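3.2 Worked example (two chains)
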Amino acid sequence: MASRILLRATGLICVALGLTACGGSSFEDGDARGKVPQFPAESRAAAHRLLEETHLVCSDESDCPRNVGLVTAIVLGEDGDQPRVGRCTGWLVAPDVIATNSHCIPTDLKSKLGPSCADRLNVTFRDDERIGCAEILHASDLGGESSGVESTYLHADFAFVRLEKKSAAEPLARSHEGLADELPVRVLKVDPLSEDKPDGLLKPTSCRAAQNTVVVPQFSTDTYVHATLIDCQVISGNSGAPVVDAEGIVRAIVWGSVSPDTKRKVGLVYETSGLRDVYFATNWACVRAPGEGDEYFQATDASCEARTKLTAGLSGLEPSAYLQTRLNEAAAQIHQRLREWKEEIKSGSNQAPIASFRWAAAVRKDETTKLRRLVTVKPVCVDAATFRPGAGQEGTPARLDVVLRRWTVRVGLDAEYRPLVSVRPRDYAATLSFDFEKLKQDGKGDYDLEAPMSPRSCHQGELSTCEGPELPDEEIVLPAGTPAG
């Protein structure tokens, strides 16, 4: 089984990345998606009483939608005993249909051949409007060990439940436009109200969408199936909550968050600055409610996929394609600065010794961290017609004290898990040694370039005499992985 170190689902799920569901995890003990706060009951009858006595209250009467409710379900042990009651958030997509997360539905109720959901699942709206379950219409496949799917996959997490009667509230309007970067949104969530009973507190919160994070780097288009949100204050019990825009139209459904342990681990690898809370949602651009289409999950474009393998981002604390793009931008910047530096030394009288050389970039790793690149310069050839050994060095191997330039490329994350790449130039003293007489005679020879900077820089290579016009600089490549040199 894949390691569970990185993410946590925010209610009731924990995929093998370390995701914790919006309320903790899946309803099921032993489910690879984690644990969720549950309320044990002495018997099935006692668990049913908990369902029937559940209450939902408003944090603010003026901001307490009637179409969002508290979902409670009875979870049974392997032998049908040890009943417990878990909780999530749900909301109306039709007068008699609610949406919630798939991981909010007990596993045995998802099977078409399984038991009835009647007396096992309720939704409670404000003013004690409590309605029982008539049928589980659909619960998205979450994969995991039970289905033979690697748990490093993220899956769209949603379910539809038909109620035994219509609610008096109006369903929430929904959009398939997706989530634009920085879109202000609200999460209409139900928080736990008591530690003793599965009562709920309807308490909406404001936050915003965030694309191009290393958490889910594929979320770089509005309609990508897995969306990330910033600072939503999503807690245990919020799984299944609708994410709405300023007009109150549903854009996504919440299901998970980055765990505190993951934030700590990220801070040990990346250069970070006060990481904020990041949450996960299934993008409604990819979902169809009952009556909206033939399939509940529709691939409206290439970004809608039922599952996504995290081959980048926090699945392995590896850089993303987005990070490589930023490194490519840094490489282009250094390429320009290298040309400017070479023009500078040609025109500077104090750099006369090194003006006779042609220089190229040398990409090195910083031994102190795999997320830093050093770009220094190395000699390629020397113009034998213009180079003059220093006084007293005639006939002996040349040893030149020179001032060179390097660029430090730092890879980090901003507070919202977006890659930050900075380029900082620095001049440094170095010593270049080579046998000039041998070089003139053979047309090539070895050189040593040493600098006592930190980290210590040292190049050894072959130097030749310059022939013909100077060629354009080679492309500078800064790989997202750890450089080998």
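3.2.1 Second chain
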Amino acid sequence: MGRLAFDLGNAYRAGGVLLMNTNIFNAALARSLNRLAEQKMPVQVGAAREELEAAMENLAGEGMTRPDAPWVRREYALTGRLMRHALRRIELAQAELAPQASAKLRGELAADLAEWLPEYRTLWLARNRPGGLEDSTRRFEEMALEYRAENLNGTTGSKDQGHPHELF
């Protein structure tokens, strides 16, 4: 598990973009699609995806024996899924897609989010107090609204103001 944690923690480097106080995965999940598109981060999505998938291979061979090992495995599996989702958001923001292709990718992202959000909630409640769950999932709900918008300019937007010292 140590190798998995280490490799996941460094997967952002393969994307070729270094951000202040964040990384490409977090930025893609925390920022609105409009903001990602405006920033035009030159992320090498393919390289980042390869690094992520190589890291996730470590999950299959792990041998944890701790009492909460099943929960930890699920948490890491979900982390990988969120990171994949983040890369797809970057692809959507970077792409000059025809309306049909953009709608297709938005639909795929919406379906993906709908699949992993219940697992996120389950894992949250296993480790955290229920009172923070709504705050924790609010951004994901905003993302779901973005995916239903017709184009990047039609998104509902999020309140991401960014950090004043961010490069992108």
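3.3 Remarks
Helices lie at 2-10, 24-30, 33-39, 45-60, 69-94, 99-127, 133-148.
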